[in-house]
Amino acid sequence: MRLPALTFLAAPLCALIALPAGAAPTPTPISLDQAMAHPDWIGNPVEQAWWGWNGKDVYFKQKRTGSQLRDTFVAAAGGARKVADADLANLDSPAVVYDRAHTRTIMVRNGDLFERDLKSGALVQVTRGVKAESPQYSSDERALQFRVGHDWFSWDRSSRLQAPLALPRAAKDPAVPDADALRDMQLRLITTLKRAKDDRDAARARTEEERRLDPTRAPGPVYLGDKVTIEGSALSPDGRWLVVVTAAKGADKGRVGKMPRYVTEAGYEEMDDQRTRVGRANPAAHALKLIDLTTNKVQDLSFDTLPGIAVDPLAQLRAAAKLDPLKGNRPLRIADEAEAVRWSLDGKLAAVMLRAVDNKDRWIARIDLGAARLIPQHRLSDEAWVNYDNSGFGWLPDNRTLWYVSEESGYAHLYTQPVDGRPRALTSGKWEAGDVRWSADGSVAWMLCNRKNPGTYEVCAVNARDGATREVTNLAGVERFSLSADSRTLLVHYSSSYMPAQLATVPANGGAASKLTDTRTADYKARTWIEPEIVAVPSSDGGDPVWSKLYRPAKLEAGKKYPVVMFVHGAGYLQNTHHRFPVYFREQMFHNLLVEKGYIVLDMDYRASQGYGRNWRTAIYRQMGHPELVDYQDGVKYMVANHQGDAANVGIYGGSYGGFMTFMALMRAPEMFKSGAALRPVTDWTTYNHEYTANILNTPDLDPQAYKISSPIEYADKLQGNLLIAHGMVDDNVFYQDSVRMAQRLIELKKDNWELASYPLERHAYTQPESWLDQYRRIFKLFERTLKQ
To answer: Residue 202 in contact with residue 210, Cβ under 8 Å?
Structure first.
């Protein structure tokens, strides 16, 4: 967790945040049993939160203690009050859509559509039991539009009439038979058949003409053919156009993995289908179709106009692998099938975000509705991979200006671009902008920002006219936020090292926070914890420092060397050195226990971690586990040089990507890392999923060397130290097979001092306290047995 603006001395080693003056409070001892207990004992965090329709009340969800059920509360003076079940029917949902004047909202609650008048508070139910999605106002705001499945409907406020607007069908038009030479011959030779067909065609044409001219009749289906599937669609607010995302039907989905379950309610073993492995089948390419709903004319939107679409950035790798070169355009995916088409509020302009399946390009294009063609507006290219996180875009209220987030400067920042104009960066610098929200008039954007340092997250306000940017919160650990209807107040989720997410309101132009909740239990609040110190570990690669959390005693014993434990967070692209409540809160309590037992601990945001810009993110391209290992070696050297770390007794542990990195440390730097615990680890990247792995390593057929140098199983023969492998047997993220294959490899190599602990009922994220305790008891015993010699 990073403290505000730090100044580092020009010295070989990084500066360290100083301990508070005077004696530090003595941490409360924590047992392993307590640290791994069900987190209810901490106090459950605030989950979803939203404004009441009056702009004053704040509602939120919270899990019940001892149950998976959730209750709804309203924040009130002196504490939160539970909303009675009978009153839930009059509440809004967390996600609402405002009209332009912010006097009305529409929302989906329990699958049904409602509209609220914000002046009177009147709530009108529009649908019941239809599973409405994608609600929006019509361009004249007289009607509500929504989707049910792939069909679009409208509800007129004045007439209370609900009617279909667009009915796309992935099927053949039953009135248009396939070309057939025998049918053609029959119609040419048999006059009676020809006359009957002509009568049917005339009746159908007459019916369609009557339907077109009669506003009281529902539109007919629009047939797209039976060789496609509908992946998503977006209706123009004026009801004139429908953009449909399709994929080829029957695309090869690849062979799926099978996961056995040995402990089942029925008592018999069971087998589940799971995901495919990377490269076994590329994601199906998407296509775009534009439908004119006044005529039902369907036109394909060609991707030919996108710059670089026919240039293969992987051509050299493809040639080296002796694969055929690509022909024609590279396959594309619409960034998010249901939400990646953005219409201006007046329905006159549409923009779409597209990504190359090879992950090297992202385009934003405007749709020329009259000409049915794409007009490129922005292209973001990356020789590694384009970041999926920075994908916000849309139209400003002027209906003429696009906004989007791009990493083109090296950091995620906010840009605007008028139609037929040049883009303008509204924000800049070595920090990241995300979760952008605009005022109703488009004059101000609010966003999450980490301007002070990479781990301090606030809400920033940006002036759309001159780009002036400033923090409007001072909470350090903001997680997310929403705006009140009048854009005057922020509802903020924030947290800190030992406090799960809570709620506060803050004036949108800046000011003191009014803290609304504190859901921690009295037992948990009474404890004193080791506040992790934020250190910037110098990089031997000469780049930016590696920001890290340090856990150590307030005062080190003179002359004593402390065994070192290095923690590796999961996900690869995730940030753990910040001011928020960590995902790894159990591990943080474990680190308190380790310090109590005589260890010092370092938790690093190694290269590829989130929040540090493009170069940090892509350092692992085609070499997973290599730059990160250098960072951990630098971390060990830092601990030895600055905190009396014992270079001869260094342990490392982590889960998922952290388990992968534990393998890489023990097998590629066995002289430094003596012991390690690899939890639910990836051992061979060829077995992981496509969406994550292909970004970083391409595909195994195209880039086999990247997979070979990045997979720990290739280095198993180098293992010298002490290893614990722990894995849930029903893990549907990193398959249990990964650990089983590594175990077999170690058996064949006659390796000693390793063990495999299996958890028959646990998935990737463990849920049972008994499993957590068993796993961490093994880790603790491993370190006690091997690092205190």
So the answer is: no
Contacts of residue 89, Cβ cutoff 8 Å, sequence gap at least 6: none
Inform me whether the pLDDT recorded for 683 exceeds 80.
Answer: yes
Q: What is the per-residue pLDDT across 385-394, written as a single tens digit (0 to 9) for each?
A: 999 888 899 9
pLDDT at 268: 82
Does residue 458 contact residue 452 with C-beta atoms inside 8 Å? yes
- Residue 337's pLDDT is what? 58
Q: pLDDT by residue (tens digit) across 246-290?
A: 999 987 677 888 888 888 788 888 888 888 888 888 889 999 999
**In angstroms, rounded to a whole number, what is the distance separating the alpha carbons of residues 635 and 643?**
11
Which tokens go with 538? Answer: 């110098």
d(CA 782, CA 666): 14
Q: What pTM was computed for the model? A: 0.92
Let me know the angle formed at the C-alpha of 380 by 373 and 278, rounded to the nearest 5 degrees: 95
Please report, for residues 246, 286, 335, 388, 446, the alpha-carbon distance to residue 332 in angstroms, rounded to integers and kept in the order given: 11, 6, 9, 14, 31
Q: Note the pLDDT of residue 13.
A: 32
**Is 599 within 8 Å of 592 (Cβ atoms)?**
no
Identify the CA nearest to 684 among candidates 742, 745, 744: 742
**Alpha-carbon span 119 to 14, nearest angstrom:** 57
Which parts of 227-308 fold into alpha helices (H)?
none
Distance between CA atoms of residues 241 and 230, nearest Å: 16
Cβ-based neighbours of 524, under 8 Å, separated by 6 or more = 41, 42, 43
Per the document, the length of the chain is: 789
Please say whether the beta carbons of 159 and 143 come within 8 A: no
